[in-house]
Each structure stands twice: as structure tokens, then as C-alpha cells.
Design a protein that fits this description.
227 residues, 6 helices, globular, seven-stranded mixed β-sheet, Rossmann fold, alpha/beta
Length: 227
């Protein structure tokens, strides 16, 4: 991955980061209310969110790029050569990943490869029209932001069929506003267009009619499974 980003642990340990995580986690749980008996892979920085399902999944693995340091519970590997066999996971969650990858094509081809034939991908990316994409004091203010339509078209070009889109973080990215984040989200979802939300969320499934991308499995790395 490119676009080196620091400060994930500090951000999520702060009151503002914790509030943002709660709001995003709520939307993720609405979209995926249960993953009982399924295998889940988180790519990017997903350790704040995998615990939503870790008690019910058969396994939940976090994979982080090398430049995101300090996460002892995550496997560190290159996203272009993930150390997993084909068809390994039922679900993939991508947070703090798409916007900082240096090659979205390779990343999405590897996601397609490791997903099972009925697997689903949930992408969370900074919305280029939202305030959070411009807030450099947060991890969402780094890398390449996307509009919801751009995420949709990117996934469609890389062998995925988009099922639904959602949004979150209508609240401005500053602590005084985040203290009332729930009220901001309720008002934002009712009044403002989704294109102005801070984060775009897109769910897609493998498009088996689009072809089977080639990939190779990286070996020799230790996989750390989240408790």
C-alpha cells in the first residue's frame, strides 16, 4: 500500500476517534447483522470493527499493510499477495485500505480470489465530497478519497456486483460536534444527501460471470487470528 498513514491507535484511543468508531460500527452492524459460522477477513485497519462479529465467526483475521504499525493482533502482509488460499473467506471488510493502496486493481483482484463464490465485500472509504476526507487530523483525511459512485464503478470494473450503498459520519470531524454524533447522524440521514456524508459504504458480491482473476498465494507468513 502507498500513502503512508500514521496515528490509527492514537486516533481511535481519543474521544473523537472512539465516537467516530461507534457511529461507523453501528452502520456496519446494520448492514451485516450476523456472520454466524462464517470466515471474516479485515483489510486495512479493521481491529476496531472486527469485534462486532468475532464471537460468532469461525475465524476473524485482520490484515494490515506494513506501514500501519503497532497493531500486535494483525497479520502484516502485502495486499497484492495475501497469504491465504483461494476461496478462504465468506466476508471481507475493507476499512482504511482502499484510499491508501497504491494499486486498487491488485488489491481487489486478491479480495476476489480469497472470497468464496458467494462471498461479499464491504468497502468503507472517505467520501470526497464530505468533510472527513479533508480532515488531516484523522486517518480518513489521508490518501485518495472516493465518491460513492466512484467506489461503485471501481468494484464493477474489478469483477464485483454492487448490492447496496450506505453512508455514515454526517457529523463534522471535530470533538465538540462528535459528542452529539448520534443526533447529527439522525438529522443527516433524514435531511442531507448521502453524497455529503463523511464516509461512503458499498457492499458487493463476487461476480462469477465476470471471469476468474489470476493470483498467487504468498507463503511463509504467520497468520494471527483475532480472539
Amino acid at each position: 500500500m502507498g500513502g503512508e498513514v500514521h496515528g490509527f491507535a492514537a486516533f481511535y484511543a481519543s474521544p473523537a476517534g472512539a465516537a467516530a468508531a461507534r457511529l461507523l460500527a453501528h452502520r456496519l452492524r446494520v448492514l451485516w447483522p450476523s456472520l454466524r459460522g462464517q470466515a471474516l477477513l479485515g483489510i486495512g485497519h479493521t481491529t476496531p470493527y472486527l469485534p462486532l462479529w468475532s464471537a460468532e465467526t469461525v475465524r476473524a483475521i485482520a490484515l494490515s499493510p506494513a506501514q500501519i504499525a503497532g497493531d500486535a493482533t494483525a497479520l502484516v502482509a502485502e495486499e497484492a499477495t495475501m497469504p491465504f488460499p483461494d476461496l478462504s473467506f465468506d466476508r471481507v471488510l475493507l476499512v482504511h485500505g482502499l484510499e491508501i493502496t497504491e494499486n486498487a486493481r491488485r488489491l481487489l483482484r486478491e479480495v476476489w480470489r480469497v472470497l468464496k463464490d458467494d462471498g461479499r465485500l464491504l468497502v468503507v472509504a472517505p467520501n470526497r465530497r464530505g468533510l472527513w476526507a479533508h480532515a488531516e487530523h484523522t486517518p480518513f483525511g489521508h490518501g485518495q478519497p472516493y465518491s460513492p459512485g466512484q467506489v461503485t464503478r471501481l468494484l464493477q470494473r474489478h469483477l464485483f456486483h454492487v448490492e447496496r450503498r450506505d453512508s455514515v459520519l454526517y457529523v463534522p470531524p471535530y470533538a465538540p460536534f462528535l459528542r452529539a454524533g448520534g443526533a447529527w447522524e439522525t438529522a443527516g440521514r433524514a435531511i442531507w444527501p448521502a453524497r455529503h456524508a463523511g464516509l461512503a459504504i458499498v457492499e458487493a458480491r463476487k461476480d462469477l460471470l465476470a471471469g476468474s482473476p489470476a493470483g498467487r498465494v504468498a507463503v511463509g507468513r504467520q497468520v494471527v487470528v483475532e480472539a
